[in-house]
Design brief:
Length: 253
Amino acid sequence: MRPGLINNCNMKVNEITLPKKIAPGAVIGQKDTTVAKIAKFIEKNCTEALAAVSRADQLIFRGIVERHTKGPVFLGSSRERDRTVDGTSSALAMKICDTYLRTGGFEALRGNSIFCGDESEAKKWGELYMIFPINGFKFTYSIDHTGSNADDYMLPACRSGVGDYFSNALGKVKCPVLSKIPNPIELNKKFLEIEAQKFIKTNKFRKTNLAHCLQLGHDFWFVGNFLAVHHKYRNKLNKLLGISDDAFDSFED
């Protein structure tokens, strides 16, 4: 069995059961799951996300390549990584961004989260799935930035004078986004806290009010477990959950 992948030998047919723990990056497929049972699971285990989705009348989507899926309905979990898989952000920019966010009290970071957004963006990255984060998840988004590219966050921050923490650590005077990744260097904690708040304020990062993010149509990233449901169930599932999503797909099974 490949690392980070769990089979579904302990899962009951026609029943979605939430394990006590899902391994980071794991995929747990569900066999012969009916739309009614999917809705029941969401209403029981995804109330926080469902409230935001219902308020915004916008579903949460993620494009997933086939090798990272386990059928049309599966449970999954976010995982740690030291760089973006798709190469959209430099590893150093991601490291800087995460250091500032973590210092500022954010738990969902570029390096430990699942990335989601609206349908138009998600379907560019793979097969379209509806994502329902399971209660207890933490999320991050920016009011100003629509996407999740860490380099996009660093550029305005550097123009605003943020980046001194890492510039000093590297002995540089400019924003070190394109510099070689340094080893962790401990500087004055208070200085880092000030820099982090400047970075968060400049980019208008938020960690509450997911409905607002969905209404803006911006990407966000979250850390925690989730239920992924193929978009072919969209129409029937929306009706059962009472979501007034406009763009129904018509090709149900």
